[in-house]
Amino acid sequence: PSIGIQNVSSATGNHASQAVGTARGIKYYEADSIAFSSQGESSCSEGYVFEALNGAAREQVPVIFVVQNNGYGISVPVSEQTANPIVSDNYTGIRGLKIINCDGTNVFDSVAAMEEAVAYVKETGGAVLVHASCVRIYAHSNSDNDKKYRTEEDLAECRRRDPLPRLKNHLLEVEGVDPAKLAAMEDEDKELI
Predict the structure, then answer these.
(1) What is the Cβ-side half-sphere exposure of residue 61, based on CA atoms within 13 angstroms?
(2) Whole-model pTM?
(3) How confident is the model at residue 13 (pLDDT cuts 50, 70, 90)?
(4) Cα(174)–Cα(168) distance, rounded to whole angstroms?
């Protein structure tokens, strides 16, 4: 809170409405801020999220919504949760809502999407929905046995798209970062964490 970040317990739909309320305050008090809401794709089947996106677009308040679509709402596949596998497609009819889709497993695409979203909000004062295609490599929680509803092929594909090894490979193979330097950075990060 001391630096303007209000933490929430998990990525659920009711936080979207709270972000719109925060954005209304930002607009009213003419603060140089952007409200942010992050949630999973299944939360978008809740009325809270539609109300938030609709209200934010109608009022043109400075808020960025990020939907992390990993294909599963706990144990329910996205095909059983929503009409469109690209969840942002459900909201294309909301006038005034900027929609940006990105590969959430690609660090560079994710950063570019967020930079575009921030620039749009700063330029227009309006709302943005960033839909990030992601992966969930493990079970949703300790009480979830994802082996009951996911195949080994699905999990292997998720591991292939894991953003951390993808970034590491990019740094080594494309950017030419010295492996010893990268290993030292990883060790430093592990100690810090």
Answers:
(1) 25
(2) 0.91
(3) confident
(4) 10
